[in-house]
Amino acid sequence: MTKHLCHVFIFCTAIAGLVATVSVAEQLADTQVQLAADVWPPFTNHFGKPRIATELVHLALAKSGYEPTTQILDNWTVSEDLKAGKYDGCGALWKSIEHEAYLLFSKPYLQSRLHLAGRKGLDVELSDLSQLKSKRLVLVEGYAYGELVDSLKKVEIIYGKDSVSNLKMILSGDADYTLVEDLLIQYLLREHTDKHAKLFDFGSESLLINPIHLALRKDLPGAAKIIQQFNQTIRLMQVDGTYNRILRLNSISIDIDGNGYKELALKDLDFNTKASVGGYDIFSNDKPLPPKTRYSIRDTLYNDWDEVPNDFRSEDDFIPDTRKEGFNLFGGDF
To answer: What residue segments make up the domains of the chain, in order of their start?
Structure first.
């Protein structure tokens, strides 16, 4: 009898171990989020290269309790791969009627804003690209420019592999104009402040604006919950300095409390200078900075610069030089 009881005990222990193993595997499967994207600097790229959208999405999902990964594809096959169930979603995608048929979208967390860039001295304040007749416009091959480019006639269009390469084509004299992401312009001004004025001119108007979303397959178990948690976490990251650190920008402008006015979210402070008066607009819209700017610093809103407490007044609060951290988007030879 004892022998039989021992066998039963061993059997039950083995079953319990198997059930526990299956349970752990199921939990891991529930938390893993496998995403896909192509090379789209500075938003998505391979590990070790600037990919701010991927960094934001990964961190927001990790803070929400998930384990995200992103497979960078050499060619844009993301839509087909998602339809086939090969991946769970895409961390940087535009909304479209086609995509909304089988994907759930987060609220936008960034924008793609294209500006006209040209060799120094050329007119870049153009809203109609048909005015570039007889000029050479270099674009990113495979990029969905839509009507902005599709209707162009008598403009010589050539293609490069990405925006950074296209800017270098302008420098080498192989092109006259290109369309560049607003964030790339910010980084160019930051990394090469002493050179940009001699190299390029950039248009002040955004010619094409597309909100960037996290998108997950509708048939992915728990997709709606993941999107909801992502939206909540992203909102917190926009006000606590996380966005600034990932974007490598000290000051960003965003409507934090939904009152219709933008506030300045700051990562680092320099009280030896005047109060910050502007920042990079996360979303390009009609919401202005109010006459009396409010500041968000480390999760706290201050109605006036003078309200910021003295314990922030430390040299430790200065933003580091990102070039010393290996974040040089354009390379040392640019």
So the answer is: 29-110+218-239, 251-317
Q: 177 φ, ψ to 5°?
A: -135, 160
CA distance 128 to 205: 11
In sequence order, the 6+-apart residues with CB closer than 8 A to the CB of 43 are 51, 52, 53, 54, 92, 110, 112, 181, 183, 212
For domain 29-110+218-239, give the CATH number: 3.40.190.10
* Rounded-to-integer distance, Cα 246 and Cα 56, Å: 7
Distances (CA, A) of 215 to 36, 239, 316: 10, 23, 38
Going by their DSSP bridges, the two strands 295-297 and 263-266 should be labelled as parallel
Residue-wise pLDDT for 211-252, tens only, equals 999 999 999 999 999 999 999 999 999 888 889 889 888 888
CB 111 within 8 A of CB 208: no
Report d(CA 214, CA 245) in Å as an integer: 20
Q: Which amino acid is at 289?
A: L
Quick one: pLDDT at residue 27?
A: 47
**35 in Cβ contact with 73 (< 8 Å):** no
- Paired tokens of 227: 């999107």
- Tokens 């920042």 — which residue? 279
Q: Which pTM was predicted?
A: 0.81
Dump pLDDT digits (tens) for 241-281: 889 889 888 888 888 888 888 888 887 665 555 666 778 89
Asked if pLDDT for residue 319 goes beyond 70, the answer is no
Residue 36: exposure state from Cβ atoms within 10 A (0-12, 13-18, ≥19): buried
Closest CA to 269 of 238, 298, 246, 294: 298
The string of DSSP codes covering 52-80 is HHHHHHHHHHHHTT-EEEEEEESS--HHH
Scanning the chain, the segments in alpha helix (DSSP H) are: 2-31, 52-63, 78-83, 97-100, 147-150, 163-171, 182-191, 193-199, 223-239, 242-247
